[in-house]
Amino acid sequence: MLSKTIQDALNEQVRIEAESSQVYLAMASWAEIQPGIDNITAFFYRHSDEERMHMLKLIHFINDRGGFAVIPELKQPSLTFPSIKHALQALLTHEIMVSESINNLVDIALTEKDYATHNFLQWYVAEQIEEEALARTINDKLELIGDDKGGLYLFDRDILSVSVVGSTVE
Ligand code: FEO
Q1: Closest ligand 1 atom, residue 131 Cα
Q2: What is the pLDDT of residues 107-146, one digit of tens each?
Q3: Which of 26, 35, 128, 134 has its CA at a distance of 20 to 30 angstroms from the CA of residue 3?
């Protein structure tokens, strides 16, 4: 059985994962109407789906342990971006925020002596290391390209292999 403290903290993470899915979905929709970045667009859509999966995993865990997963209200994310670089920087910043939130959850689980939840959260700890590393790699590559249009074309081709290799989501 989950304590109220743990249940509330997990439900807050449900909200954050749902919000992440929305944030990346908005990036995907914006990217889709920009010319020549089909794979970046696909990357955002896939990332949005992964976040929904992270949310569902939490929902099932809460409910399976005798709690009640609350489906949250979501605020509208940013809809447009000055450039693809801005969108990908925002993605990295967002992932860093998610990592902090997961670390905080781990802290709460330990304080509450809820070792089952602590064990469950290790998947998210590992996932965040992967996601942050992937976002950093992508941003580093974009930094190298600068404003070179030909570079962006190659980057779009490249992001496919980077994101497939970097993804641990099943
Ligand atoms: Fe589910 Fe990218 O954090």
Answers
A1: 2
A2: 999 999 999 999 999 999 999 999 999 999 999 988 888 7
A3: 128
